[in-house]
Amino acid sequence: GENVEQHPSTLSVQEGDSAVIKCTYSDSASNYFPWYKQELGKGPQLIIDIRSNVGEKKDQRIAVTLNKTAKHFSLHITETQPEDSAVYFCAASRDLKFSGGYNKLIFGAGTRLAVHP
Amino acid sequence: GAGVSQSPSNKVTEKGKDVELRCDPISGHTALYWYRQSLGQGLEFLIYFQGNSAPDKSGLPSDRFSAERTGGSVSTLTIQRTQQEDSAVYLCASSLGYKDYEQYFGPGTRLTVT
After folding, report:
1. Contacts of B99 in chain A (CB under 8 A)
2. CA distance A114 to B8
3. Distance CA B96, CA A101 (A)
4. At residue B1, does pLDDT exceed 60?
5. What is residue B58's predicted lDDT score, i.e. its pLDDT?
């Protein structure tokens, strides 16, 4: 079945450094790749997403890159701040046209990011 | 505006008891999803609703789990005869419609079965 692997499981950086989280997916029909941030006691919040028709997307300090050939995508956070500390999840899903019209997200296991002042 | 809400936020129950978890999606969102998040794990898909119907129940782990949605809005996830392995955070998400990728998550219900 579909699978998404995420690495590393934990990541510790100093404030101001960059952080990179990587995911690989198994379903070659996947074409939507969101990233969620989950703070303690809260539900996941979408921070950025990318469709398979682009290779990179940026939003201020965060960016996502996608390599469809290799079936992997990555989250890049620059100039990290303590408030970036959270658990980050990647996910993948198929084109809604081929999935019965709904977005069945397959999630990675998560990366716990700690940003130290 | 109001986001997805879930109740209760925490639930402690004894093994063998039934529990009901509630989800109030964002107003106007026709698609609703339930996920389970076990300790230190990613999110596991349970069930999807479009309106009041559930085209995909494939993620429900056993026949002790059921869910319904009424009026195209509120959804209830019911777990009968709870087991310790049911302990997890149960998350609900909603989206605008069946062609909308973005899902908005609620804060979850933390279920502990003793």
Report:
1. 96, 101
2. 29
3. 12
4. no
5. 87
Quickly state the pLDDT bin for B54 (edges 50, 70, 90): confident
The token pair that represents B89 in the structure block: 């955070």
Q: What does the pLDDT average to over B44-57?
A: 89
Question: What average pLDDT does the segment A73-86 reach?
Answer: 97
Q: Both tokens of residue A100? A: 């019965």
- Could you say which of B48, B91, B95 has the minimum Cβ distance to residue A43? B91
Strand partners, A11: A113
Distances from the Cα of B19 to the Cαs of A117, B27, B81, B89, in angstroms? 43, 25, 8, 13
* Distance in angstroms (rounded) separating the CA atoms of residues B104 and B92: 8
**Checking DSSP bridges between strand B109-113 and strand B10-13, what pairing results, if any?**
parallel
Chain B residues 38-97 with CB within 8 Å of chain A? 40-45, 48, 50, 55-56, 91, 93, 95
Read off the tokens for B17. 């008891």
Q: How confident is the model at residue A100 (pLDDT cuts 50, 70, 90)?
A: low
List the structure tokens of B106.
């609620």
Nearest-Cα distance to chain B for A87, in Å, is 10
With a CB cutoff of 8 Å and minimum separation 6, the contacts of A72 are A22, A23, A24, A25, A66
